[in-house]
Amino acid sequence: MTTTLAFIGLGHMGGPMAANLVRAGHRVRGHDTASEQLAAAATAGVEPAGSAARAVADADAVFTMLPAGRHVLDLYQDVLAAARPGTLFVDCSTIAVADARTAHDRAAAVGMRMLDAPVSGGVVGAEAGTLTFMAGGGPDEFAEAEPLLAAMGRKSVHCGGPGAGQAAKICNNMILGISMIAVSEAFVLGESLGLTPQALYDVAATSSGQCWALTTNCPVPGPVPTSPANHDYRPGFAAPLMAKDLRLAADAARSGGVRTELGLRAAELYQAYAQGAGAEADFSGIVRDIRQRSGGQA
Ligand code: NAD
């Protein structure tokens, strides 16, 4: 069934996601504060709406893909009243669980419905339509959104009530950030002990050290030809985005009194890396930081 959709935030992720909704046969009215993003989306068939309020006015569902929680909350403040009563708002941005819950409350207060539905899969997944969505909200809202999410992704998981999608996202990425540091430290230690990266890889990839950070996004060049390490650490999943997700996890842990010792340390290490040499690198490039701080050549 063709639906009229609004898509606000047409950047690296939102642009290709909106294009996939157009490809699936939907009418998509888009808005972005950056004119170049809007123009790029228009070439893919997204109709520039002129403003966010105009984009949502006759939409059956409203997607947002914005940088951070304050952008989502500010935008909701501006546009919730402009939508038809009962419109489904689906926020795919990665934001704090608390901000997502506030957004749900504000939507419900004016008669709108909402899902938080952050993604994993990065720009490559957004372009290929192979994202994974993790959704928080009511079961009816999830059922309604699922066919639309299927036009942009391969898998959607209903994680629970308001904020549950964001909770799943930051918990998953906390595992990933910690495991990438663990794998990187192991390679640097192995090198200092005279072990070749290939030898360590061959053992760990088929032993209990096996994990995605090792076998898909291997931080050293060689063992996994498709990993960013073989392409001068071009992202991939950029280090500043990992730093952001770990900061959200750390904030949630602190406010909940949860002792995520490694998660907090990973957040510190990624923040330092993302502010320095890793500003434009894949998050696996942290191996070079660890090597350098150990007295080796980055
Ligand atoms: P981006 O900066 O490329 O895109 C965000 C877009 O939002 C920009 O084009 C910006 O101009 C627009 N924008 C900001 N405020 C706006 C407003 N008030 N109204 C309309 N447009 C506005 O960022 P991105 O890489 O597309 O990431 C978007 C979200 O997805 C972030 O929350 C990020 O954490 C998350 N995410 C990104 C990736 C990734 O690999 N890039 C992966 C998973 C999740």
Structure, described:
By secondary structure, the chain is an alpha/beta fold. The protein folds into two domains: 4-160, NAD(P)-binding Rossmann-like Domain (Rossmann fold); 167-293, N-(1-d-carboxylethyl)-l-norvaline Dehydrogenase, domain 2 (Orthogonal Bundle). The protein has 13 helices and nine strands. Strands 1, 2, 3, 4, 5, 6, 7, 8 and 9 form a nine-stranded mixed sheet that branches. The longest helix is centred in the middle third of the chain and has 29 residues, at 164-192. The chain is elongated and about 65 Å long. The N and C termini lie far apart (53 Å). The mean pLDDT is 97. Nicotinamide-adenine-dinucleotide (NAD) binds next to α4, α6 and α11.
